[in-house]
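Researcher: I'm preparing a figure for a lab meeting and need a structural model of a single chain. I don't have an experimental structure, so a prediction will have to do for now. The sequence is pasted below. Please return the structure as tokens so I can convert it later.
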Amino acid sequence: MPPVLEVEGLSIGYRDKDTLHRVVHDVSFTIHPGEIVALVGESGSGKTTTAQAVIGLLPENGQREAGAIRLNGVDVANWSQKRFDGIRGSVVSLIPQDPTSSLNPVRTVGEQVAEILRIHRRVERREVNARVVELLARVGLSQPELRARQYPHELSGGMKQRVLIAIAIALQPALIIADEPTSALDVTVQKRILDLIDELRLAYGTAVLLVTHDLGVATDRASRIVVLQGGRIQEQGPTAELLGKPSSPYTRQLLADAPSLAMADFRPERAPTATAEDDFAIVVEHLVHDFAVGGKGGTAFRAVDDVSFRVRRGTTHAIVGESGSGKTTTIRDVVGFRQPTSGRILIEGTELTTLRGEALRQFRRKIQLVHQNPFSSLDPRQTIFQIIEEPLRNFEPLSADERQRRVEHILARVGLPPAVLQRRPHALSGGQRQRVAIARALVLEPRVLVLDEAVSALDVTVQAQILRLLDQLQAELGLTYLFISHDLAVVRQIADTVSVLQNGRQVDAGRVEDVFLWPHSAYTRELIDAIPGKRNSDLVSQHPAPGLLQPAS
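Model: Understood. Here is the structure written out token by token.
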């Protein structure tokens, strides 16, 4: 059977004034009907650019320099946008990464699904609404008639992604390009979306180009994998063969860094720094947090319901759960941003819920927060020096020389060179920015760090570097971590103990190994079962990674 897609010798560059910077170099691969091929690589590897070229959506400054792109045997590489408009949706469709920004907020879901049908005139006008409902039901949305009348903001992230899939499959195209289709979703929602794509592939014989930085997802779902680095193919081949005998040092590094494919299932036992049985850095007892709904006299929504846990000094406790589980509300109470409805919170022996005003402000020196997204948590107008220095200006009357010394010292601790101090955030990579965020949190010498999804926005190799940095800092400084995540594969690597939250309640808690091996709740078992990469983890080569990647990227 001839391939649906043939990419041959493709090279692409981006024009900056009079200079053309090549970002994709001589890339070739094929996809046959009913096959999933994964393009895997970090940010900047060229995978998204390659996918955009296939569907004719390169940015204005993007330019194909060489090579062919054949869809069903027809070379479309030189096609105009008008010609591409005739096949987008009918021959090749796209499932974009971010479901929130990909749907029009002022049009109903039904109108947006109907648009693809009307553009290609595949359905009679009177039949469009019925076909829309049929498609929404096909992708597993409950009450499809209701969903068709709703606006995107009324749907969850997983539901929005299902709408985008409904649009992508509406005309049963020969090829679907899924560009990081689950990277913004919780792990169980991710599994359901990937299962859905797989079901539709089997039902329609559709070929799928899966673009992802997550090697765990790729090994679970793809029959073949193409590994990109710096715009060049490092290797490609059947999934089982690539996992068992990776030929490229870069692929071996990716396999070693993928949390779901890591050879060590659980974090090695670490002797706690606590000297007494009751020596805990964090104590949370019977935490309850209600939010008023509907204004004065309205009902109360209970976001956190009787949550309790203790964290020994020098160890890491993880809080895991899907969106809406109560994770964020819990940590905002723990760091003193909000007052809980009831319960006790002790940080390093201080009863947080009794503090007010200046006492509460000074307390925050003991506990600092590292946010999820290093691209939005740093002020773009400040230099890196100003960003790290700011907490010292707020809390300590130090001389300029002493501030300079403290900033340089903590910068070295997180593995960054002094040269970055006069740069601004936009000049740094994602991993470097997160190191800056960690340095800013540590400059006041706190005893407790709260890490709110602190690695979820990073590529797998950079994520592994930050996790190693956190482990090193904890060992050297005796830090206590409260680590919030929806990714159990990461939790398995970094945490000593864990609380699993569902709908505000703690449904499992204890040592990470105990919770993973003997979960009490069906919800925890579902979370564990949804970890990507488990299907083929036994095939992963046991050859050690070469350690060729730069540690401070």
